[in-house]
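Homework-ish question, so no full write-ups if that breaks the rules, but can someone show me the predicted structure for this set?
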Amino acid sequence: MTARSELLERHSYNPIEALYWLLLIGTFFAFPNYLSIATTVVIMALFALSLDLVLGFAGIVTLGHAAYFGIGAYTAALLASGGWREPIIDAVLAGLASAGLALMIGPALLLLDGLPLIMVTMAVSAILFEAANKASWLTGGDDGLRDFSFLPVFGLFPWSVYGQTSYLYALGWLALLFVLVRRVVSSPFGVALQGIRENRARMRLIGSPVIGHLVRAYTLSAFMAGIAGAVHAQTNKFVSLEVLGIDTSVDVVVMLVLGGIGRLYGALIGAPIYILVKHFAAEWNPYHWMFIIGALLIVAVRFGYGGLLGILGRIEAWFARARGTRKP
Amino acid sequence: MFEIERLTGGWGQTTIVEGLDLSLAPGETVAIVGRNGVGKSTLLELIVGRAQRHTGCIRLGGRELSNLPIHARALAGLGYVPQEREVFASLTVREHLAVASRPGRWSEGAIIDLFPPLGRRLSNLGSQLSGGEQQMLAIARALIGNPKVLLMDEPSEGLAPVVVEQLVHGMRSVVNDGELSVLLVEQRVDIALELASRCLVMDRGRFVYQGTSDQLRQDSDRLAHLIGLDQENRFTATNPHIQSGVKR
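A: Not a homework solution, just the prediction itself:
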């Protein structure tokens, strides 16, 4: 076996994963009245996956990732308002706009680490929020952007009010970018990112261009976040300042922590749990729903190193040990 | 040829090593011995760029390395095995090798031939390895980058004698290979004198003695005086069993 194939094997496909994707596809048929919230789940899972690439695999601690989500959302909406209504190219261009910003600020930003990095990423997000607020002639300010629409996907599937196209379109992006991220983290570049997360100084000593690798990962992550933002704009036909807000940045971090950081599926599991719990808890008690999210977060962090996937992993290991001890 | 010339530096503004000159011919192994805290490790850290150079220069094959960033020095041909090993806890052995690999004589197969225990642990995480295996991995990770000069900082430190024997066996193969220049900092004088053809004794940041390993081995009184060997080590340095590389 070559080193390359072994690397890919670390994140190789497991048959149990099919369950997750079947569940997402099954949702389309089983819950046609909930496709709107299901679309939000898929978009946030994609956004959380983009964050996992930098936070989970490269160790870039950021609390301002909404900046890229927001840039993507506004770019998609503005392009559509300007006449570019083809959704896929629109989303790619939105992703490139976010990646462009990351590529510009990344080399300076990623010289920082820890608390200074958190503060600066938050500041970047806050500056963009205020800039979008002030530039109301462009962004609509508090009122947001609306009155834009998109052509049918592939020229075949119109955007319906029931959200079927929106859901499958978002799911398509999630699947595509999930495969991309999986390949990236399984490659020598992805392994180098994990080495950097653990010990930057050591990686430099083996000749790894640490900042260059971090900028590449950050840019790719911003591209994905931008696409998530674009899909958000395309499926909602509305963009508000909320997409650039600190709450959005915090929410996505909470989703990732809940699901499990640096585990690929952590983002994909954390997002639905967070959004569904938030949705139903808010229905149950509109004033105190955060208590439930907080309790869930405490359980995930306290008992499951690595979020809910960590808890599942420990339970699986416990059963494996129990089976092992029963052997004669 | 690897050369350092009038090298002075340390940590921040504090000078630890002063005015050092040293050259290594291709394929030559040189050992640096000395008491604790005399600047041996700092010298290696200066060469790789982690400590601060105040004056002097470092050249490899005529190319000036002194102003290059750390990763560029590694790409230029410096391999470094730090004292603390610094293996990546969350990467497998195979991932360690893959992430550091550059084309050349040392491939994954050659590494496994050198350190067979690593071949049995390829899918294990760095955190799951014993101290000896971690040290082998640290050396392997430096070797697989196919450096021109290998800097090793006390590779035998903290290891059980039987593990040291395995390690020295592998290091001997590297040294005898003759492809690589090796600068070895080692507290165990027996190992240093066995592996290196030339030996430098360091005290208070300067080289106070340079000579062949044979000369030092035969002059145990001088060796004891230079580096403060106790009776046991003095015996080891002159013991004929030293050829096995294992302290008896």
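Now go work out the reasoning yourself. Hint: Chain B has eleven helices and ten strands.
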